[in-house]
Amino acid sequence: MSEEVLKALMELFALVVRQDGKLREKERDYVASFLEKQLSSNLMIKYLLMFDEYIGFPEYGKEEQDNEFPSVQDSVKILDICRQINRTLNRGQKTIVLIRLYELVNSSGYFTPRRLKVISIVAEVFKIHPEEIKSIEQFVLGNDPDKKINDPNILVLQPGTDVCELCNNMHEGYSGTTIMFMRLPSVDLYFTRYFAGEQFLLNGVPIGARAIHSFPQGSSLRLPNRQAFYYSDVSSKFLSETITQKISFVVNKVSYRPNNKQRTLVNVSLSAEQGNLIGIMGPSGSGKTTLLNLMSGILEPSSGTVALNGLDIVKDKEKLEGVMGLVPQDDLLIEELTVFENLYFAASQCFGGMDKAGIVSIVEKTLSSVGLADKRDLKVGTPLNKVISGGQRKRLNIALELIREPSVLFLDEPTSGLSSKDSENIIDLLRELTHKGKLVFTVIHQPSSDIFKMFDKMAILDQGGYLVYFGNPVDSVIHFKTLDYQVNAAQGECPSCGNVNPETIFKIIEAQVVDEFGNYTEKRKVKPKQWADRFKILNTAEPVKEVEESPEKNLNKPGRFRQYLLYMARDLKSKISNIQYVLLTLLEAPVLAFILAFIIRYIPDPESDVYHFSDNENIPVYIFMSIIVAVFLGLTISAEEIFRDRNILRRERFLNLSRSSYLLSKVTILMGISAIQCLLFVIVANPILGIKGMSPAYWLALFGSAFTANMIGLIISASFNSVITIYIVIPLLLIPMMVLSGAMFSFDKLNRTISRPDKVPLVAELMPTRWSYEALMVSQFKDNRYSSLVYTADGETFYSLQKKISQADFNSVHRIPELREVLRDAAEKHDNPEKIKSLGNDLSLIRKELAKIPLSSDMVQFDGIDALYPGKFNNDVTGSLDEYFDELSSIFNKQIIEAERIKDEFVSLNREKLKALEKDYYNYKLEEIVTRYYDPDKIIKFKNSLIQNTDPVYLDPPAEGFLKFRTHFFAPSKNIFGMRVDTYAFNVTLLFINSFILYLILYFDLLSLTVKFIARFRNLKKD
After folding, report:
1. What is the DSSP track for 917-954?
2. Sheet of 439-443: strands edge to edge?
3. Is the distance from CB of 203 to CB of 229 less than 8 angstroms?
4. Residue 611 CB partners (closer than 8 Å, separation 6+)
5. Which range is most confident: 374-388, 540-554, 562-576?
């Protein structure tokens, strides 16, 4: 208390006393006693003399005329003093001043109208509520303990009465005693006084009878060695009249054994009711958070039950939806959003039927209640890069749950890392919740004395998950000191200052045995189970009465689509608010596109500065690298998306919000970002490299690759528990995609255990890069303006003419000569019984290859096909087949000549135009790759078949089945459902189908479950 305020109080005391012109000895003694509690002895004398001076002896030594109003001079002085005090003291402190004024006149029992009028003026200037003034008068001036007081703010306890359950504590040792408590609701202050022959202890400190004493949070009042009256019980009695909702929370013999390992909680039983603040303490690893998660329903007990109003929180989860709230130790805030926005989006997910104005009103009210109204427009930032303080972050985290007012609230170490002042503010906030009838459980670590005493009950856990105490916090010290046979066991608090040291409890619990040399050993004096057993024996508290009515719900979740829109709005706002993220996201793709295109813009003639697309040998490399860039960008923008939200998702799972809405919002936003990035990449790189008319095709293929990468990134983001692991996994995914894309290594030149010459390896079929690379290479080759230029009236294009030439050339130059060789071998073997098996293989190969030869209108099927079997095959068949081969060769040669003729005629008429188109649209290096121009083996014998190993881009795959779409690489088309589909359309469609399959894996969390199963299996093997 400041010197200025103390002087003002002395003058105010003097003004009250001198109204009747006479100071009584008891009144001066009261002032002396008041100063003695506030000051040292020297200062006490100084201010007592000041009080005497303000009284003005001997001027006021005689009785004044009986007048109920003070003089004008005194009235002015009173107003001046009260205004001075108003500027310094808060509302609660001013209320205490008023009580001390009443107590001053009560000390002598001399109540005059003028004295009471002065006090009335003070109360009016202090703006004390009239009803509370009336309560103060009755409480302070009520010196008859037997007089009945009918005031809701005053509680009178006497043995043998049935006022409340508190009177039951007075049966033993409280005979002839009256205890009074007063609550002032506007300032939430409690006061007590008692009438008895024995001296009471308030927080372990002796106090005088009839005097008014403050009864703050955590206080206890008792006669020595008698049952105590606790603040929590007194406040519950007052609040019971205003609290309509009843809660019974019962934990009954709960144990928890994760993965069949050693139990982390053992037979924990406790119960609580509405309006209580319950703390959970214990050393590290004692199971505090586990108990909190079991009580909140996040974990399922291995044995035992947890019930809220008779409803099992596991079995009746749907009935309890929205009743409980959880604030984990981890941050639940979105750092890019403001304080208001964080709370607004949280509220929107809880009040589905409310309009925006209603939600804003609730948010504003909640911000005011947690003291953050002036911080509403500040970004919350990160715990390291702070914008708001740690205490404000904690309050905002609590507000996320507080906004929907759950009946039961669980908090995991809400004061961790905070200053003592911030910690007290947090606990004050929780106490306010209990005044509204809420039940609050919180894990607390190293609380101060004030915070420790603010709890109604404290659950103390020991190593191994044993509950070794549950009851009043201050009594916990007495409990353990008694069990430890300490001399001062009855003292829970310091007798001089009233403080409690919670550390005393753990020093007793964890006390170690001393060896013969006086050194502490690692062996404990008392094991956790022994502490738990002793508590069970001594615990006489009865469990709360079970409430049968259903608990109130204050959760109205919006529909799935509305949740989807909210998630998307929240995510978009957080991303847009991060300017650095926006700039990098938008600039990364075009910068990479420019760097790549600029570097590989190749002109073969060192004397020329003229660039031609056709001569650039780096175009296939560009196609490959653009796909890798798309995949890389898709992975990097999604790899942390779900991991970053893991704490928020834990809360939202607790509210049972839609997982599909959340995931679809992520997918939608990532799709949009990838679409923009791929568009920017294409519109920058393609013009630099002179790629014309293909930008839509490039964009769609790159977007399909990036979108698939988005889904893969989301899966790994949801499956792994650290950022380091996620970014280690990315190269493990990206490198196989590069190796198995078909660009770096030819598929038929890979290890034979995974590859084959006629089809793309199965492992490569799983790579999105394989499909997008093939799609772009084939489309760039055959769909450009040069290749798709129409040469004839019936629609023949350059590509289709080249395709006819290629097919006819392969059959006449490679397949038929190879079949002639096989036929000659067969003719030599048919008379040799020892080579009958080899003959069968040769004839089977001929039959297969004859079926592959495309027959035109001027061709007929070989009529001796039924004779191509051992036993039927002879020299006549050989001769007939040889003639048939001659006929086919002749027809194929005519087809080549005709196609070349059509080409030559068109070229002769459009030579300049075709030359220009060829330079701008046709790339020679790309042609070499898709036609395998330099591959020496044009035909390969594999599994008794002849494989075309040249011009794959001109070879349509044979239809093999309804769903058999696997083909050779660079095939111009695919077969599916009995239809022939263009390769580009098929591959791009397959990319999006793959993305949908990956979404299902993400939705059902299959990779995460697999990772957890493997980890559990490894642990079981170790055990």
Report:
1. HHHHH--HHHHHHHHTTT-S-SEEEETTEEEE-S-GGG
2. 311-312, 303-308, 248-256, 265-273, 466-471, 457-462, 277-281, 439-443, 408-412, 324-327
3. no
4. 601, 603, 690
5. 562-576
Q: Report the C-alpha gap between 923 and 970 in whole angstroms.
A: 16
* Structure token digits, residue 124: 């009016």
φ/ψ (deg, to 5) at 460: -115, 125
What percent of the chain lies above the pLDDT cut of 90?
Answer: 60
Strand partners, 220: 230
The CATH code that applies to domain 1-128 is: 1.10.3680
The structure tokens 């978009």 sit at 572
Tokens of 756: 């084959």
Q: Please name every residue paired with 408 in a beta bridge, in sequence order, or none if there are none.
A: 324, 439
**Residue 619 — very low, low, confident or very high, per pLDDT cuts 50/70/90?**
very high
Reference 789, options 686, 906, 694; nearest CA is 906
Handedness of CA 981, 984, 990, 992 (dihedral sign): negative
Topology of domain 248-323+406-538, CATH: Rossmann fold (3.40.50)
Report the candidate in 825, 837, 849, 878 with the shortest Cα–Cα distance to residue 939. 849
Q: How far apart are the C-alpha atoms of 890 and 808, rounded to whole Å?
A: 10
Residue 982: left (phi > 0), alpha (psi -120 to 50), or beta?
Answer: beta
Bridge partner residues of 157 (DSSP): 179
324 DSSP assignment:
E
Q: Could you tell me the CA-to-CA distances from 697 to 59, 692, 779, 952, 987 in Å, in that order? A: 106, 11, 8, 21, 12
Query: Please, what is the average pLDDT of the chain?
Result: 90
Q: Is the pLDDT of residue 725 over 60?
A: yes
Question: Which has the closest alpha carbon to 776: 687, 694, 685?
Answer: 694
Are residues 776 and 701 in contact, defined by beta-carbon separation less than 8 angstroms? yes
The secondary structure of residue 854, as a DSSP letter, is P
- 319, 552 Cβ separation under 8 angstroms: no
Q: How does DSSP assign 516-568, residue by residue? A: TTSPEEEEESS-HHHHHHHHHHH--PPPPPPP-SPPP---BPPPHHHHHHHHH
For residue 868, the SS3 value is coil
Which pLDDT belongs to residue 238? Answer: 85
Cα–Cα distance, 726 to 715 (Å, whole number): 10
Q: For residue 576, which phi and psi values (nearest 5 degrees)?
A: -65, -30
What is the C-alpha to C-alpha distance for residues 136 and 598, in angstroms, rounded to an integer?
86
Q: Tokens at residue 208, please?
A: 């005088």
Do you know the residue count of the chain? 1023
Residue 10's closest CA among 32, 26, 25? 32
- Listed residue (348, 444, 350) closest to 406, CA to CA: 350
Which DSSP category does 63 fall into?
P
DSSP notation for 184-213: ETTTTEEEEEEE-SSPEEETTEEE-SS--E
Closest CA to 361 of 371, 373, 349: 373
Strand partners, 856: none
pLDDT digits (tens, 9 = 90+) for 904-946: 999 999 999 999 999 999 999 999 999 999 999 999 999 999 9
C-alpha 625/C-alpha 638 separation (Å) is: 20
CB 159, CB 200: distance < 8 Å: no
Distance, CA of 974 to CA of 968 (rounded, Å): 10
For residues 15 and 167, what is the distance between their CA atoms, to the nearest angstrom? 41
Pairing of strands 311-312, 512-514: unpaired
Helix axes 768-782, 619-638, angle to 10 degrees: 140
Q: Is CATH 1.10.60 what the domain over 143-242 is classified as, yes or no?
A: no
Residue 58: cis peptide before it, omega within 30 degrees of 0: yes
CA angle, corner 1002, sides to 1001 and 1003, nearest 5? 95
Give yes or no for a contact between 425 and 437, defined as CB atoms under 8 angstroms apart. Answer: no
Please name the amino acid found at residue 172: E
Q: Which of 714, 773, 732 is nearest to 1008 (CA)?
A: 714
